[in-house]
Amino acid sequence: MRGLILAAASVAALALAGPAAAQAPIVIKFSHVVASDTPKGKAADKFKELAEKYTSGKVKVEVYPNSTLYKDKEELEALQLGAVQMLAPSNSKFGPIGVKEFEVFDLPYILPDLTTLRKVTDGPLGARLLKLLDSKGMTGLAYWDNGFKQMSANRKLVTPADYKGVKFRIQSSKVLEAQFRALGSIPQVMAFGEVYQALQTGVVDGQENTWSNIYTQKMHEVQKFATVTNHGYIGYVVVVNKKFWDGLPADIRSELDKAMKEATAFGNGQSAKENEDALELIKKSGKTEIVTLTPEQDAAMRKAMEPVYKDVATRVGQPLIDEFMKETG
Ligand code: LMR
């Protein structure tokens, strides 16, 4: 796959150097792994619309949804090699390229709501975290929301004991691994594009995700139960290849900045509703039983996951966890 990515990167470089380069539009390939009809999918399409409008067609944005171009790990490599220019991976997916700090967003129950999240992403801590990406050949442009995660499985998940021995698909985050280990489950890292089939064939028994991802990937059709836990958050960092971004004419970059700002406001303004609507559609389908927890059951889940904070302190950094909790507390 690395060979393929390299080949694509050199074709892109050749295209830029050709004689028609002066007139040809600047192409931004934006690859992502979710459906178009999701918070990220809609924000990406909005960015395309605005970027092309504000640059009067000097920039063309090609959006490739649903892992059609690359899966999770490959897309980050492709961005670093310049085969694509823009991505929006979840906070949980930067560990494999050596940026572990975004995994702080994965800590169980660390964010009570989206307003609190905004304090971090719109503040100095959010800006500092984006800067960490520079050394990896990427520029962090924005934070996009999805929403809060829920648990699903073929077993009814109510108490922490129900999680024992259950195989869960996880994103590539050590915090998420620690979270499921704390529950006595068996976590398994897997690309998003492979989850449906893994659930269908029983390679894993369950997964955690937002309602919009569960619905648009049809996971509810292959999971008997989904429990309303809101135990974690999925959000995205919009990243662009740094060399590409720095090499853009300044006037174009500033129009793209404007388009990104507006697409971010648009996407983040509707993500909560997207997830509410998806939950309603899942309920209406009648394909999965939605389980709600009593306050006591919710408290038991929180307690069971508490040890995760200590388990990952060295990896994520205790000072970062403290700062994050101060901002959100
Ligand atoms: C997942 O892998 O479950 C999510 O990060 C997918 C996404 O991009 O929302």
UniProtKB/TrEMBL annotation:
CDD domains: PBP2_TRAP_SBP_like_1. Keywords: Signal, Transport. The keyword Calcium does not apply. It holds the Pfam family DctP. The keyword Signal applies. Residues 1-24 form the signal peptide. InterPro entries: DctP_fam (IPR018389), TRAP_DctP (IPR004682), TRAP_DctP_sf (IPR038404). PANTHER family: C4-DICARBOXYLATE-BINDING PROTEIN DCTB (PTHR33376:SF7), PTHR33376. Belongs to the bacterial solute-binding protein 7 family. This is C4-dicarboxylate-binding protein DctP.
